[in-house]
Amino acid sequence: MATSGRLDIFATVQPGLEPLLLDEVRELGWTAAKAQPGGISFEGGWPDVWRANLLLRGAGRVLVRIGAFRAEHLAQLDKRSRQLPWAEFIPDGRRVRVEATCRKSRIYHSGAAAERIEKSLRLATAAVRGDVDDLRVFVRIDQNICTVSIDTSGELLHKRGYKHDVGKAPLRETQAALFLRACGYNGAEPVLDPMCGSGTIVLEAAEIAKGLAPGRGRSFAFENLRGFDPSLWGQMKQEIASAEIVSDQRFRGYDRDEGVVAASTSNAERAGLSSITSFNKQNISNLECPEGPAGLVLVNPPYGARIGEGHALSSLYQTLGRRLKEEFSGWRAGIITSEERLAKATGLPFSEIGPPVPHGPLRIRLYRTATL
Fold this sequence. Notes:
Elements: E1 7-12, H1 18-27, E2 34-36, E3 39-44, H2 46-55, E4 62-70, H3 74-81, E5 95-103, H4 110-125, E6 128-129, E7 135-142, E8 145-151, H5 173-182, E9 191-193, H6 200-210, H7 230-241, E10 251-255, H8 258-271, E11 277-281, E12 296-299, H9 311-327, E13 332-337, H10 340-345, E14 350-353, E15 357-359, E16 362-369
Parallel strand pairs: 5-6, 5-7, 9-10, 9-12, 10-11, 12-13
Antiparallel strand pairs: 1-3, 1-4, 2-3, 4-8, 7-8, 13-16, 14-16, 15-16
Helix pairs in contact: 2-7, 3-4, 5-6
Keywords: Methyltransferase, Transferase
Protein name: Class I SAM-dependent RNA methyltransferase
Pfam families: RlmL_1st, THUMP, UPF0020
């Protein structure tokens, strides 16, 4: 809970990716951060909240936790939620949506719990019930402990603001960023994706190389909360933008679908990355190693349950593995898939297999090689 100007900040992440996000959070200067199931907790002031939203590549949201208490029945929830410092965070009359979840608790009806919290909020701030695009309060009741958080992000942070064209079964930008980190990528080497889809992996890699803030092209919910200083926020963004890195690396994406290649190219233009990225139509059977230094091949192929089905996928993975072994000596490779049998079909010498990560109805893993 907020005390003496300090805020309890929580950056969410998909289960299994907490260690990678913890590395990123600490790398950005929040060295006392700690991993918890589903995210990373750390303390700071409002500028830390703004900076986390602007710079964190792997987080889904940035929440501010305003209180936690035991509640075993709705009357108790009602009474204790009225003691929360609502007015310190939410301006009067603001439209707010409350979302509640209940797990292993005596309060089991999430709708009733949300109504009690909404009532407390209205009494403190004259807030009105909002839609999904307005300010949001998240209430989690787990084993009778109620944690109340304010969402400071708005739209999920994987929505960078430039990617209008999205292919089938896209990998989220936040996932791509953390998988790149898991592969040891730090922006100092080329990255190639031979099945690039809408270009997510390539564009994330290029942004990291140029030191671009992932949130530079979008707005955030904290701009509508108390404590927001537009002047200080503008100064922060300007200082971060002025630290952009000049990169001479190249980032390449290939796909057999000409429409997807055009979409990736458009996404790169909107992101300001055209100068260091290229997207071309090419079948995986024609994949060749580009000239220049060795780097990383990271690919998110079809999984079977997702886009393609049957034996054709095994053949596709076999071809991918063969081309990588034949053409990419000195490079590292990462394969993202939900199917272990397909990963094994590549014949690649995987040195590490990552934890399962939710991806829609599936659970995907990163299969990494050492230098080929």
